[in-house]
Amino acid sequence: MELDMHNGYKGVIPLNHHPDFSELGYQVITELGRNREGGRITYLANVLNSNQQVVIKEFCFARASADLSGVKAYEREIKILQQLNHSRIPHYVDCFEIPGIFYMVQEYKNAPSLGLKRSFHPEEIKQIALSILEILVYLQKQVPSIIHRDIKPENILVDEQLNAYLVDFGLARIPGAKIALSSFVAGTPGFMPPEEQFGHSLTEASDLYSLGATLICLLTNTRSAEIGKLIDDNYRFNFQKLVPYINPRFRSWLMRMVERNRKRRYANAAVALKALQPIQVVGTATAIDTLVSTIKPRKRATVLGLATVVTLAAVGGTLMSCQPGDAVRQLLEARECQGFNLSSICQEQTGH
User: Fold this and answer.
1) Do 72 and 56 form a contact (C-beta atoms < 8 A)?
2) How do the domains of the chain map onto residue ranges?
3) Which of 41, 152, 155, 347 could hold 168 in an S-S bridge, CB 3.0 to 4.6 Å?
4) Measured between alpha carbons, how far is 349 from 352 in angstroms, rounded to an integer?
């Protein structure tokens, strides 16, 4: 790929000081972040003779034990960013290099990362989810569609109006691409969908798993590095007791986002977005909501079908001795309830 970069830039990086990019038209203001293991440093800079601010990402291959594959990753990120035009994906601006160090310049968004310790009300977390899903819908409408592959709190910026921005497209792929087992370290443990961990083909549902894991971290005030505390011995998320005030419908939506089997997740971002929009995050649930949210997805259809039959029968007056609310009671007293190991819920809802 041909890159429009300032090859052979001879700028000097003084020891213990910010690099001097004045010859290229940038003045570094401050350091925004540092990843020593990855050999990456991020700077905030002014564009000289303008009011524009940019982010300059430094990739030091000499310090990061990186090889040609690392260089290709940043070339791929630039190629993807050049074809995107979304207000909540920072635009690519420029790139340049010096021996052993590569720099990429992007639009600056005045919004902190979710990787910082921040607390949000559950309804605010829903707004963040909707905002990210809108970006994913845009990415999945591209031809070919784009899978981000590294959605996590550190790669999501959120401003004061709860607008979310998605950054770091260095691992992005197209659907159907298989991931080599040797690239495990490329993703982030706990946020990678199972299909990626085992080198299977990615789908438009792959990013949904990572987003679901991110939202669960926000709801439970869990740092990314501690996400393992939310995953049980069966490698499934187990966080329900930490957020008892969450509406079961929202909890059910989240659990479908992080289904280990990608075929049981929402098919794509558009479907997940539509499903989330009408859900109230905090609030009481009906008996049906409570029942359905505790059942594994494969068995929900059976219970919902049973609920429909009971409800229709109640409306038609064919249920004997039914008083208002008895339709739900008869549903919960049915054999299926016991068959799903929900005796505690049956007792709670029916009093039997």
Assistant:
1) no
2) 22-107, 122-276, 287-350
3) 155
4) 8
Q: Is 158 helix (H, G, I), strand (E, B) or coil?
A: strand
Structural element, H or E, at residue 30 = strand 26-35
Indicate the CATH number of 22-107 among 3.40.50.2300, 3.40.50.300, 3.30.200.20, 3.30.565.10.
3.30.200.20
The residue whose two tokens read 């440093």 is 41
Beta-carbon neighbour count of residue 337 at 10 Å? Answer: 20
User: What letter would DSSP give residue 198?
Assistant: T
| Predicted TM-score (pTM) of this structure | 0.75
Cross-strand partners of 54: 45, 107
Distance CA 201, CA 178 (A): 4
Instruction: Write out pLDDT tens, residues 247-275.
Output: 999 999 999 999 999 999 999 999 999 99
Tokens of 115: 């990787």
Residue where the block lists tokens 């009671």: 329
Identify the CATH class of 122-276: mainly alpha
Q: Region 196-220: what's the mean pLDDT?
A: 93
